[in-house]
Amino acid sequence: MYRNQDWYDAFEFSYICRCRTSAHLEPQRGGCCTVMPYFVGKILEIPLTTSQDYSLFHILNDYTIDLWKKQIELVRQKNGLLSFIAHPDYLIDRRCRGAYEALLAYLRQIG
After folding, report:
1. Using one digit for the tens of pLDDT, what is the confidence trace for 48-93?
2. Which of 24, 12, 82 is closest to 50 using CA atoms?
3. In terms of Cα–Cα distance, which of 84, 88, 89, 87 is closest to 17?
4. Which residues contact 94 (CB under 8 A, 6 or more apart)?
5. Cα distance between residue 81 and residue 57, in whole Å
6. Contact yes or no for 20/55 (Cβ under 8 A)
7. Beta bridge partners of 43
8. Where do runs of H (alpha helix) occur along the chain?
9. CB-based burial of residue 9 (10 Å sphere; 0-12 exposed, 13-18 middle, 19+ buried)?
10. For the whole model, what pTM was predicted?
């Protein structure tokens, strides 16, 4: 998730979800260090507050929701916004889909 907030003035939309809270597993390191939406000029930045499915499954080789549960708890402690990125093409694999379905069930349970 590449980002350059200096370019935001050139965009003609109201919100964007390009900045991670922290980006330990992303090509561009860093992050916004917040779990709350914020403005960059006139654009609302909605930070990605949880690990992407690709990072969880294909970098960490983790097919559980344990990391997501930890992240969910940390975000909830700060009354922040939970945001997820799930790619349908990554969820074709049975293990990935099973983890994603477990995440949805967990979100329903705590909701």
Report:
1. 899 989 889 999 999 999 999 999 999 999 999 999 988 899 899 9
2. 82
3. 84
4. none
5. 23
6. no
7. 40
8. 53-54, 66-77, 94-110
9. exposed
10. 0.81
